[in-house]
Design a protein that fits this description.
Strand order of the largest sheet: 4-3-2-1-5
Helix content: 25-40%
Largest sheet: 5 strands, antiparallel
Structural class: alpha/beta
Distance between the termini: 57 Å
Shape: globular
Strand content: 15-25%
Radius of gyration: 24 Å
Number of strands: 14
Length: 443
């Protein structure tokens, strides 16, 4: 069998690898005379102050480097394959799976279901543990790779089998106990499905997950996303406003209980619940340091805190020239869920800068269906169709979550440049923090 080659795609500026003149196109052969199987092996071997690295240069020469560095300091190398191995596809058939609800005709990579424990370590992906081999468990424990993010869904083994469509899904929960006993840090996620794992089942899941504190650092509860492409799939329904209130009341009760006993709030509701229930967002300290931002837990609160801090800092500086600048019209397009919140921030900004006229557009998701209201699932074509006849003013601000990571391409493969030409407006991509939003509005 042909051995896997770990070809280098990028060298980070100012890194050890750059100093050693390691280059894109070079191939990693070994670290500490050990053949590297995947990213687990690579990071473990680098966790030393003295390492030897063998590289094959593009001309075929093989070089060996003896490197003295800080413990756990990275070399600054990125590989063509981030896992340094084949990606493992998901063996489950979850009743809420978003990929099963995708429309046909999209790029092939969007239909790939991953359930790879290495992606949990590397990128923060959530895994079900059903696809984790014993060798993976052993290496994770030996290498102390953490945190591992786990899609729990239910602590009832029979219900978990039903939700994941996998008869081994209940048995896989035992792996969580093994990770706990080994002291591996974890985060949990519960995708809540109405009439399935809510109410008494949610109560049970939270109660049993508290047994894994402190190694289980947090658990998020997020509503299942439902697109219009659910024909033939398990019949799921959206939560009502009153049901969202009930979910939050349960979570808040458990937060108080956990805070009294463990000093952490532990279980957290994603922002959607508060917007759906029309309830005020929790205070910043409730989020325990924002452990699950990528799950939409606390993103709006953090945005609000950062934005108001930026506004306050500007007021303390006393810069009157900003308050009386050139009149300007600014547009912001975002998902229907966050739009009212962004409008609130815009009003605060316009009070300080009355020459700025800000208009927020809540974009309806026609591509996936109106039930999908988050910004990250908006497409270029929906933006174009709903903004083409609007007065967008001097510039249009879009959240970075609309684009593929590291690329200027929307989910439907429309490019940012194509949207600019179609709308004939300057487009500014804004990072997902309050300071960047403030700076973009102020320009």
């Amino acid at each position: 069998m042909q051995k896997k080659e770990h070809k280098i795609s990028r060298i980070l500026a100012g890194s050890i690898a750059q100093e050693l003149e390691i280059e894109p196109g070079d191939v990693l052969l070994s670290v500490n005379d050990t053949e590297i199987k995947d990213v687990f092996d690579y990071h473990y071997q680098l966790n030393e102050e003295y390492v030897t690295v063998a590289i094959r240069k593009s001309d075929g020469e093989e070089w060996e480097y003896e490197i003295e560095k800080e413990y756990e300091e990275d070399l600054g190398i990125e590989f063509e394959n981030g896992l340094m191995d084949e990606y493992r596809s998901c063996s489950n058939h979850c009743i809420f799976c978003f990929i099963d609800q995708m429309p046909p005709g999209m790029r092939e990579t969007l239909y790939f279901k991953d359930d790879d424990s290495r992606l949990s370590f590397l990128q923060g992906n959530y895994v079900t543990l059903t696809n984790m081999r014993d060798t993976d468990m052993e290496r994770m424990i030996t290498y102390k790779l953490a945190p591992i993010n786990i899609s729990v869904q239910a602590m009832n083994p029979q219900l978990r089998c039903k939700m994941l469509g996998n008869r081994f899904a209940g048995e896989a929960l035992k792996k969580m106990r093994r990770l706990y006993e080994a002291g591996i840090e974890m985060n949990g996620q519960i995708v809540l499905c109405k009439g399935v794992n809510d109410k008494a089942e949610l109560e049970r899941s939270i109660r049993e997950l508290t047994e894994y504190i402190p190694h289980m650092r947090s658990v998020s509860v997020v509503p299942a996303g439902l697109t219009k492409y659910r024909e033939g799939l398990y019949p799921l329904e959206l939560f009502t406003k009153q049901e969202a209130v009930e979910v939050l009341e349960m979570i808040h009760r458990w937060q108080r209980w956990c805070m009294e006993r463990f000093g952490i709030h532990f279980v957290h509701a994603s922002d959607e619940w508060y917007l759906l229930a029309d309830m005020e967002l929790p205070r910043e300290e409730t989020y325990d340091g924002y452990l699950q931002l990528e799950n939409g837990v606390g993103m709006l609160r953090l945005l609000l805190e950062e934005f108001q801090e930026a506004l306050s800092m500007e007021e303390q500086k006393g810069c009157p020239q900003h308050a009386a600048g050139k009149a300007e019209k600014i547009s912001i397009a975002t998902g229907k869920l966050a739009a009212p919140f962004i409008e609130q921030l815009s009003r605060q900004f316009m009070q300080r800068y009355p020459h700025k006229d800000i208009r927020v557009f809540a974009i309806r998701n026609d591509f996936f269906g109106e039930q999908i209201t988050v910004s990250g699932l908006l497409t270029g074509q929906d933006l174009f169709k709903q903004l083409q006849n609007e007065d967008l003013g001097d510039r249009l601000l879009l959240p970075c979550s609309l684009l593929r990571s590291g690329e200027e391409i929307f989910l439907d493969d429309m490019t940012l440049e194509e949207l600019k030409k179609a709308l004939q407006v300057k487009i500014v991509i804004v990072n997902s923090n309050g300071q960047d939003l403030y700076d973009a509005l102020l320009e």
